[in-house]
């Protein structure tokens, strides 16, 4: 009974926070071509990307404030919530974002990639949207030194809080993507695929119905999958 009560309360909180957030929405894809903006996709917390990869910086509100502070007067910062994060934030989290006059809250139900395509730049601590922008040759503002795409010339790592004062104008005063950023982004994209394998090619690790010793079969299946990966990339086992 307690489990059902807790589950109901969680679902109710998510619903309540979703409806509250929808009322705060001030930007959507229909008017995305009417203004110039930098896109900031929020990430769920806790999450391995924020608290595992980006061990050096994981304060999303701080990142938003830094960008908002140094944006030119004719630009906006568009912040979009991750659907799975709704219901996890502190009570005044969205109010703090909305209080910034040059920050707009995007519709959380819309596809984030479309915001990336229309943005002048993408800002993020780490995450998929920043990766996608980098692959498309679009400028990226990143707040963690541990991103695999930081080496690209169109990715700008914020080492110090005041770095945004010089980096943001440098990005927004230039037309993107450039021939070089498109070429570099394409190489980066294809390099990822060459060093990856398609998990869809592999069937289930283990048949639970036919196994009496599930632990041993699971271990064997995992080893076979690793062996297949090593052989594909000519790694000495």
Q: What are the secondary-structure elements, in order, as H or E?
A: HEHHEHEHEHEEHHH
Radius of gyration over C-alpha positions, nearest whole angstrom: 21 Å
By oligomeric state, this entry counts as single chain
Structural class category: alpha/beta
Number of helices: 9
Tell me what the structure shows.
- With 237 residues, the protein is of the alpha/beta class.
- The protein is built from 9 helices and 6 strands; from the N terminus they run αβααβαβαβαββααα.
- The protein has helices at 2-24, 48-53, 60-70, 93-98, 112-118, 128-135, 164-172, 179-194, 214-232, and strands at 36-41, 75-80, 103-105, 121-124, 140-142, 155-157.
- β2, α4 (93-98) and β3 form a beta-alpha-beta unit.
- The radius of gyration is 21 Å and the shape is globular.
- The mean pLDDT is 87.
Structure, briefly:
The protein contains 9 helices and 6 strands.
Could you list some keywords that capture this structure?
globular, single chain, 237 residues, alpha/beta, 6-stranded parallel sheet
Task: Walk me through the topology.
Elements: H1 2-24, E1 36-41, H2 48-53, H3 60-70, E2 75-80, H4 93-98, E3 103-105, H5 112-118, E4 121-124, H6 128-135, E5 140-142, E6 155-157, H7 164-172, H8 179-194, H9 214-232
């Amino acid at each position: 009974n307690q489990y059902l009560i807790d589950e109901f309360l969680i679902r109710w909180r998510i619903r309540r926070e979703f409806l509250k957030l929808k009322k705060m929405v001030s930007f959507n894809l229909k008017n995305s071509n009417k203004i110039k903006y930098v896109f900031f996709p929020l990430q769920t917390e806790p999450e391995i990307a924020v608290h595992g990869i980006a061990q050096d910086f994981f304060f999303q509100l701080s990142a938003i404030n830094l960008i908002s502070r140094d944006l030119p007067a004719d630009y906006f910062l568009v912040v979009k919530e991750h659907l799975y994060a709704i219901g996890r934030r502190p009570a005044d989290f969205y109010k703090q974002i909305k209080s910034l006059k040059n920050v707009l809250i995007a519709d959380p139900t819309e596809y984030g990639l479309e915001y990336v395509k229309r943005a002048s730049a993408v800002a993020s601590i780490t995450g998929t949207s920043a990766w996608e922008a980098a692959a498309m040759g679009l400028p990226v503002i990143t707040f963690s030194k541990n991103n695999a795409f930081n080496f690209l010339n169109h990715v700008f790592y914020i080492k110090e809080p005041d770095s945004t004062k010089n980096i943001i104008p440098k990005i927004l005063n230039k037309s993107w993507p450039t021939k070089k950023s498109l070429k570099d982004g394409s190489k980066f994209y294809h390099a990822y695929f060459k060093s990856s394998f398609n998990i869809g090619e592999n069937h289930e690790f283990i048949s639970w119905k036919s196994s009496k010793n599930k632990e041993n079969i699971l271990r064997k299946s995992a080893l076979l999958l690793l062996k297949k990966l090593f052989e594909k990339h000519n790694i000495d086992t």
